[in-house]
UniProtKB/TrEMBL annotation:
Domain HTH marR-type positions: 1-147
InterPro entries for this protein: HTH_MarR-typ, MarR/SlyA-like, WH-like_DNA-bd_sf, WH_DNA-bd_sf
SUPFAM superfamilies, sorted: Winged helix' DNA-binding domain
GO molecular function term, any single one: DNA-binding transcription factor activity
Protein's name in the database: MarR-family transcriptional regulator
GO process terms (BP): response to stress
Pfam families xrefs: MarR_2 (PF12802)
Length: 154
């Protein structure tokens, strides 16, 4: 016989619900702002941001793991971005099956133009709502959950 579900307490459920509502509303608003400010999709933005933070060039699988996407999703995203001239795909000389994703000059310009507007919205919607102590506590909590998740199997 299976054990009964270990339901959340009302306090745990309230914390979880608040976190989910905040996260969905924040990501939704930021995504809409990125789209309207820069004409980039949120997926374009995250790919270009991660690429340029890493110097403008990353192995395909490293980028896929970094943004926690499935390989097929990244492949489709890179294909769309390549058609618009934001990235290129280069063969990896060390690995015949591997590839590098490279931000083009147009991709670099797009993220350079979008990032200042994005950070303004992050500051207005998120950072400005919290004290430094609250930000420190949130950072600590987030890192603790991330460390815990790394120890878990999917």
């Amino acid at each position: 016989m299976d054990a009964p579900p270990n339901w959340l307490t009302p306090e745990q459920q309230a914390a979880w619900d608040s976190f989910i509502r905040m996260q969905e509303k924040l990501i939704g608003r930021l995504s809409r702002r990125v789209q309207s400010d820069s004409r980039m999709s949120p997926a374009d933005y995250i790919v270009l941001a991660k690429l340029t933070e890493a110097g403008g060039r990353m192995r395909f699988m490293d980028l896929t793991k970094l943004v926690e996407w499935e390989k097929s999703r990244m492949s489709h995203q890179v294909g769309r971005m390549a058609k618009r001239g934001l990235v290129t795909k280069e063969d990896c000389p060390d690995d015949g099956r591997g590839a590098f994703i490279v931000a083009t000059p147009a991709g670099r310009k797009a993220i350079e133009d979008a990032a200042p507007l994005h950070v303004e919205h992050v500051r207005r919607l998120f950072i400005d709502a919290l004290t430094q102590d609250e930000l420190d506590a949130l950072s600590h909590i987030a890192n603790r959950v991330l460390t815990h998740m790394e120890k878990q199997s999917d």
